[in-house]
Amino acid sequence: RTRIFSGVQPTGHLTLGNYLGAMRRWAEEDQHRAEALFCVVDLHALTVEHDPARVRRLSRQAATLLLAVGLDPELCTVFVQSQVDEHLRLSYLMECTASDGEMRRMIQYKEKAAREQARGGSVRLSLLSYPALMAADILAYGTHEVPVGEDQAQHVELTRDLAVRFNQRYGATFVVPKATHPAVAARVMDLQEPTSKMGKSHVRTAGTVYLLDEPEVVRKKVMRAVTDPGSDVVYERGERPGVANLLDVLAACSGGDPERLAEGYSSYGALKKDTAEAVVEMLRPVRGRHAELAAEPAYVDEVLRAGAERARGLARPRVDAAFRAMGLLG
Ligand code: TYM
């Protein structure tokens, strides 16, 4: 059976980008067609300056949101990374497989390192080795497919390289995975700065729609989205990034095609209004289920406990085999 793994970092509140780029497909498609595991990757959240209490709170909230968007623990495995030791064990082997140079080439590393330095902080060593841990997350489970937004493509490519290299040097141990991306909205852009990705850890929040934003807040953010000079609605990602982003979001919410949708609009105002309503309606049930689940922390804990146990059982034999293959007495 096809195996699927993906994850989300609890470094901030989850966003519309996380939902459209990744989580929605996990719930609507992936969990139904494969043996699928979805993980709150809390170890990754320690790679940048962090507040322990906040990370703990956000991890819980992310896990609750995974269930709220429709992941069903009867169909898939939902768990928290730090509760399964295999990720850390395999991560070290991946560090011994990767080179310093290939880690330094990662776009996310360059961007985040620059951001940490601009804040006057130092860059944690784990930020550089992050892709080794991510590769471990994926490879531990014999994963075939990794459903992610476009921004993670480079990390999954590196994971493939590491799997191939490991298999060649030490014997066939890992499945070589591939990334899959949604057809539309694989890269949702910031509403205030449509040339950069909508991200959960941006300091300015006006351009980011969070999954738990109140409907009024969502409306305001979308209505104030930066559009482009001109006034006719056309789908041009290069020339008209702001309008193209709204069309992508509207298409993703309503199931249409962005270029076709553009033909139906003659003003930015109408496009924004429809996009805002589509997002509000899409998020309404998510907010509702989140509120219900947040009132049942014992249920969420039990899902995570059972998920971790199942994940451990799936990962353990392969990670043990990798230890032995690399020459450890393990
Ligand atoms: P993270 O936490 O940044 O994002 C979680 C998922 O959401 C997608 N995403 C987006 N998609 C479209 N538009 C956006 N603006 C947008 N922002 C985020 C991401 O592509 C991702 O699929 N390194 C990963 C977490 C991770 C992981 C893994 C993923 C760790 N180990 C193993 C897959 C497999 C990350 O930082 O995602």
TrEMBL record:
One Gene Ontology biological process: tryptophanyl-tRNA aminoacylation
EC number: 6.1.1.2
Pfam families: tRNA-synt_1b (PF00579)
InterPro entries (alphabetical): aa-tRNA-synth_I_CS (IPR001412), aa-tRNA-synth_Ic (IPR002305), Rossmann-like_a/b/a_fold (IPR014729), Trp-tRNA-ligase (IPR002306), Trp-tRNA-ligase_bac-type (IPR024109), Trp-tRNA_synthetase (IPR050203)
Entry GO CC: cytosol
UniProt-annotated location(s): Cytoplasm
GO-annotated molecular function: ATP binding; tryptophan-tRNA ligase activity
Name by which UniProt lists this protein: Tryptophan--tRNA ligase
Source species: Streptomyces inhibens
